[in-house]
Write a structure and sequence with these properties.
single chain, 349 residues, alpha/beta, 8-stranded parallel beta barrel, 3-stranded antiparallel beta sheet, 12 helices, binds flavin mononucleotide
Length: 349
């Protein structure tokens, strides 16, 4: 019902309305689902389903979204200074394809405003991560990422370095080994230098458009640098020939249904290379319990979604959780963590 109403509004207006509603959600009684418990780089999660970056860019609604039942919420992408992003229209519904194209361009309130909101949070209310990026006109991107780590690291449970948005010119070049290696070591060094408090787990969010050499290099560099995991994946710049919507040629990142297969295959290849040494978050095209479960069987310890909510509405979360319990029964598994990477073992054996 919510999705049908929201689709009468322009996409960005609908998103604003959804955020506004989400802010007001009070803590709701939750059915415990002990079989679905999992962990994200050591962070205990009540179940594996989180909200992907980009929905609550400015950390205005994460409390309500945790109250609604997400196991974790990733705020951001946040850049050091506030910036308006690209001119609208910059978000398109590809209804026929159950997809979105966005070229938001890191519109956000900046790190100080977001830090002030996160500082007031009740840590016991649930897991919150921060996704950090660079200002479009930054003369020194490494220093932007370091600012993100220093300012937001102490306030969140995990950090994600975003080198994969297609909407900030040059950003994805940071995935190239000769740039990624110094970036990751600078970030890990800076985290290690912080004397107070616990070091939050550090993730890298990657694009689904890497070539095989790029995939291999990222796993090697992530392991060498000692980061905790990868978020697989961001939106794609590819446009599969199957797309039918009139908006399919709009520049930007494609998410939703057409991203499911490529992002899950990438996840599986990365999981094979990482062999349990990196925590993997599976994201891209999840709109059903079967798809969430497929990411877990492909090696994800947790999953995130965004576009699925636009087409399925907020009831999707509950449907996924109920469905995951059914799928565990089908596979005769007691707990979800027994399903992580199951497809990899099956193939290997
Ligand atoms: C409107 C919109 C804005 C997004 N903004 C961000 C962002 O700021 N940072 C980021 O890392 N990912 C961003 N994403 C990507 C999502 O986090 C996710 O990786 C991608 O949409 C694939 O998941 P999905 O198919 O479930 O939507 C955005 C996605 C959408 C649709």
């Amino acid at each position: 019902m919510f999705a049908a109403l929201a689709h009468r509004l322009p996409p960005e207006t609908a998103h604003g309305l959804a955020l506004w509603c989400a802010r007001a959600i009070p803590p709701l009684p939750r059915r415990p689902r002990p079989r679905l418990a999992t962990a994200l780089a050591g962070l205990p999660l009540p179940h594996p389903v989180g909200l992907a970056a980009g929905f609550d860019k400015n950390a205005v609604a994460f409390r309500g979204l945790l109250n609604f039942g997400f196991a974790f919420v990733e705020v951001g992408t946040v850049t050091p200074r506030p910036q308006p992003g690209n001119p609208p229209p910059r978000l398109f519904r590809l209804v026929e394809d159950r997809a979105l194209v966005n070229r938001m361009g890191f519109n956000n309130d900046g790190i100080e405003a977001v830090a002030a909101r996160l500082a007031r949070r009740d840590r016991a209310a649930g897991v919150v991560g921060a996704n950090i990026g660079v200002n479009r006109d930054s003369p020194d991107p490494i220093s932007d990422y370091l600012t993100g780590i220093e300012r937001l690291g102490p306030l969140v449970d995990y950090l994600v370095v975003n080198v994969s948005s297609p909407n900030t010119p040059g950003l994805r070049d940071w995935q190239r080994p000769e740039r990624l290696a110094p970036l990751l070591s600078a970030l890990v060094r800076r985290l290690g230098e912080r004397e107070t408090g616990r070091r939050p787990p550090l993730f890298l969010k990657i694009a689904p458009d890497l070539d095989p050499a790029g995939e291999e290099a990222i796993v090697t560099l992530a392991l060498d640098a000692g980061i905790d995991g990868l978020v697989v994946a961001n939106t794609t710049i590819a446009r599969p020939p199957s797309l039918r919507s009139p908006w399919r040629e709009e520049p930007g990142g494609l998410s939703g249904d057409p991203l499911f297969a490529p992002s899950t295959e990438l996840l599986r290849r990365i999981a094979r290379r990482a062999r349990g040494r990196l925590a993997l978050v599976g994201v891209g095209g999840i709109d059903s319990p079967e798809r969430a479960y497929a990411k877990i069987r492909a090696g994800a310890c947790a999953v995130q979604l965004y576009t699925g909510l636009v087409y399925e509405g907020p009831g999707l979360l509950r449907r996924i959780l109920d469905g995951l319990e059914r799928l565990l029964d089908r596979d005769r598994l007691d707990r979800l963590d027994q399903a992580i990477g199951l497809d990899l073992e099956a193939r290997a054996g």
